[in-house]
Specification:
The chain has 253 residues and is an all-alpha fold. 77% of the residues lie in helices and 2% in strands. The protein has a two-stranded antiparallel sheet. Helix 4 packs antiparallel against helix 11, helix 7 packs antiparallel against helix 8 and helix 9 packs across helix 12. The longest helix is centred in the C-terminal third of the chain and has 34 residues. The radius of gyration is 18 Å and the shape is globular. The mean pLDDT is 93.
Amino acid sequence: MNRIEQLKNELNSTREHLLAHPVYASITDLNGLKHFTQFHVFAVWDFMSLLKSLQINLTCVQLPWMPKGIANTRFLINEIVTGEESDVDELGNRISHFELYLRAMHQMGASTAAINELIAQMQNGQSIHEAINNATIPVEVKDFLQFTFDIIENHPIHMQAAVFTFGREDLIPDMFMKILDKIYADHPEKVSIFKYYIERHIEVDGGHHGQLATEMVEVLCGDDEQKWAEATTASIQSLAIRARLWDGIMRSL
């Protein structure tokens, strides 16, 4: 068994618990889905910040340009960034996954006020931590965001890559897809973009990007036992904080 398989095995029980979280079954209609997206959108947004941190650390993003890191790792992260920042919408137009999610929220009538306010506060000069603390969002959402930016600011790149790969991808159970299909059948004009987003997420993020991200973790951890142990711990923590985010959504329903 290689190291990636060992890591995945150590995550299995935590991951299965998360996939069985009751939040999925609690989303039974359009109103429930709208409520879910108003908090889940923060996870979609901070995922992009985690991604850009990986790009900053693994490639050269300053002038003058100079070679940085390993070419294979640069290729892996740059390909993921391209897909996440400039994928295609349901009509074939270029769009980031975050902007696509916002568009899906607008179509279904979900409020984007909280996420827009968070971003506006930072554009006006607040630090990310000030903006999170001042945001009118459940404490579980705040804790989720604080965890992500603690990983970005205070932990090495192999731990960031592990959280990106194993704590954020491929967490959509079949149950949720069946519920989404039913809501779409009842409200196709309200849910078509969100349905496309989820299907695209499964196709790209859970498939090709997932494989690229796994390769990135393998390269960054190499044969270093301590790095593999740290990557495993960070991954488990990221799944646990995602479960708390789901708890918060359940509590607010």
